């Protein structure tokens, strides 16, 4: 099955209450179509250094940031397809490269046991990333339930709604069940607008009418601030070198 391997777009995020979500769903009904997969549970393993260099840099809101993850849609199995994804953000524009491969091969590649079976520009970028950071290892398991939609006359304009965002730092395995700590407060939904250009008028209108404002939100970043950093600070984690998040410093 063909799938997109290279993305360049804006990703604009909003935190919605249940009531706001329903109003947006009603407003978008004449224009948007649910994608063919329906509601999907997305599983991710994020990779980071021993002292969480990547996520710490990311939550400082730099001009440039990058992350590496392995993702499955639904439960993975050793020979089932997963995506190895390198995601970069520069001056608000998101660039994503991904390769599909069996889960077992992806795990061995990330662990340095083997190279990617296919030699491509994307695989070479990921190899460089692995070599540059050297000590990358599975840092956190993140899962969420996602419903995705695309614009009827422009499949590149997408909107996603993520709920039940969970994280854990143990049993970091795409084949395992979905459980962990709740990253978002109960009743909230993370909506993402993914587009190469501007938003349609009907969407900007409902956002304005309902006083819904964009926010800076990273699932991994929030997991670090809420759970990982406090555990490290209390001595329950595995590293003593992680710096205090910006928000924690500000409100200490």
From TrEMBL:
InterPro entries: CYTH-like_dom_sf (IPR033469), VTC_domain (IPR018966), VTC_sf (IPR042267). It comes from the Bacteria. It holds the Pfam family VTC. SUPFAM superfamilies: CYTH-like phosphatases. Signal peptide: none annotated. GO terms for biological process: polyphosphate biosynthetic process. Residues 8-227 form the VTC domain. This is Polyphosphate polymerase domain-containing protein.
